[in-house]
Automatic annotation (TrEMBL):
Pfam families: Peripla_BP_2
PROSITE patterns (UniProt xref): FE_B12_PBP
Highest taxon of source: Bacteria
Coiled coil: none
Family according to the record: Belongs to the bacterial solute-binding protein 8 family.
Species of the source: Paenibacillus illinoisensis
Record's compositionally biased regions (Low complexity): 22-36
Spans annotated as Disordered: 14-51
Protein name, as recorded: ABC transporter substrate-binding protein
Domain Fe/B12 periplasmic-binding: 81-346
Length: 346
């Protein structure tokens, strides 16, 4: 009897197991079907969201009494004639597939990335250096975009935001170039440009690419904090110390590898004595078109007996960066930080 009961229980257990397997398989198939349907719906929703419905309004900037404040810009259609007031702004447009919209670029102070060099050559150059308002308007733009500090009524400026808007010309100030900017500001700029030009899918895809690079840089971060100071050549044989007080975007990017600007909270002109006092681990000098060869300036610094106590000088940890990568306020900040990490052996 005991043997018979065992056999009966085994049979019931086996049947229950087979039933459970069947139910489990059916549930899995149903779940997979539902997941596929959800993915199709999500893709369809994403596709719908990737289309801009005009008119579209984005939040941007203007200045009031020297302070950046919010100002909306409304677009009835995608702009057709765009002037980029810096090389970095033009490069960002190219990355989003918008080369054909550019009718002018200025401030060509650094290297153009090889992978977009041919596209960049298609853009009319309004000025090798900074471009003035008259020349800018002469290109008949319907949008002027780029670095905020160049939206001024000056020989080197494209005109103020308000004056250009009064003329019917839309403006887009890169949020990376205004107060309290960070890498999130770059992602915001890309998203907003995606809306304005109806290339939202391109913008989203490019942000994902950049975020992968962001994570890769974080993985390379120095275990110990590395403090740096920037310097340049005054052109008269003396060294200029740069505080980088407003360059929070650069600080945000450099912090990915745990490298920080020691002078970011300093104001005014800084002396060589101040540099000796703060004693940076690393010193950085930028290379830009038309400027003094940075190696000449480095040689002067290394030969200066007054600064021999500075750690960066003692250990010869002085690095050259590309001006456009860091002061183009665009996506090439990643290339700049990656190159610096390479040079520093991170």
């Amino acid at each position: 009897m005991i043997t018979a009961m065992i056999l009966v229980l085994a049979a019931c257990s086996s049947g229950g197991s087979e039933d459970a397997k069947g139910s489990s398989q059916q549930a899995a198939e149903s779940s997979a079907t539902n997941a596929a349907a959800d993915r199709e719906k999500t893709d369809a929703d994403a596709s719908a969201e990737a289309e801009t419905t005009y008119p579209v309004t984005v939040s941007n900037y203007t200045t009031e009494n020297g302070t950046w404040v919010a100002k909306e810009q409304t677009f009835d259609k995608a702009p057709e004639r765009v002037v980029a007031n810096t090389q970095g702004a033009a490069e960002l447009m190219i990355r989003l597939g918008l080369t054909d919209k550019l009718v002018g670029v200025a401030a060509l102070f650094g290297s153009v990335p090889e992978d977009i060099a041919d596209e960049f050559k298609k853009i009319p150059v309004l000025a090798e250096g900074y471009v003035g308002k008259e020349v800018t308007i002469g290109a008949s733009p319907d949008l002027i975009m780029g670095r905020g500090g160049l939206f001024e009524d000056a020989d080197w400026g494209v005109g103020t935001v308000n004056s250009l808007n009064d003329m019917g010309i839309k403006t887009f100030v890169q949020s990376t170039s205004v107060t309290d900017a960070s890498l999130d500001s770059l992602y915001k700029d890309i998203t907003e440009l995606g809306k304005i030009f109806n290339v939202q899918a391109n913008a989203a895809a490019y942000i994902e690419e950049l975020k992968v690079r962001e994570e890769a840089l974080k993985a390379r971060a120095s275990a110990e904090t590395i403090n740096y100071a920037s310097f340049s050549d005054n052109g008269d044989g003396t060294i200029a110390v740069y505080n980088g007080n407003g360059d929070t975007f650069i600080e945000s990017a450099m912090s990915l590898i745990n490298v920080h600007n020691m002078l970011i909270n300093e104001t005014g002109t800084l002396s060589l004595e101040k540099l000796i006092e703060i004693n940076p681990d690393v010193m950085i000098i930028s290379r830009y078109a038309g400027g003094i060869d940075p190696q000449e300036t480095i040689d002067k610094l290394l030969a200066n007996k007054q600064v021999q106590s500075i750690n960066a000088v003692k250990n010869k940890k002085i690095y050259v960066i590309d001006f456009n990568n860091f002061w183009g306020y665009g996506d090439s900040i990643f290339t700049g930080v990656e190159n610096l990490a390479d040079d520093m052996g991170l």
